[in-house]
């Protein structure tokens, strides 16, 4: 590679980093279609479009736009749908994967889903940690979980990789930066936000008390 080519190569790399696009090398087939998942879960639970809209207190036109991929739901909207469907919020980000015993994933090649203010990657890809699901969460600046505090069974573990992440647990604020971690009983009311001006990347592991009892899990991608 000539000196000019090397310079151009580094310039292209820097441009990609500056753009904040974390999935430049990702395969489009690994993208989870949230709208399609909502439709699958709705029909699987026997809801009509209007029936789920009424149960979740959402506008039927809004729900239709979500299912057809014409708008991205925020975390608060997904929580309303999860409660109405009696499923964990993480169900919206799960691809239909075969049972596995070992999971090895290259960076940028994980199943992932986009929501209105960030993205989520499934680090387990079908293999859980005795009920826990490891997730890579990427949040846009000023993203938050919505106006309603989150409560569910079990424990929750957060490890900040990059940027900033603020958790409020039982009215106490915890500001996480790269290398900081937080674990807490998930029955305590909690709230999260990326109050920084840059992307936030963190690993989130949600561990419900009962591996088979996931209906009370109210979290998110």
Enumerate the strands of the largest sheet in spatial order, edge to edge or round the barrel.
1-2-3-4-10-5-8
User: What is the CATH C-level name?
Assistant: Mainly Beta
User: What does the radius of gyration come to?
Assistant: 18 Å
Oligomer: single chain
Strand content: 15-25%
* End-to-end distance: 40 Å
CATH architecture term: Sandwich
Number of helices: 5
Alpha-beta classification = alpha+beta
Query: What is the name of the CATH superfamily?
Result: Jelly Rolls
Mean pLDDT, rounded to whole units? 76
Helix content: 10-25%
Number of domains: 1
pLDDT below 50 for ≥5 consecutive residues: which ranges? Answer: 1-29, 212-219
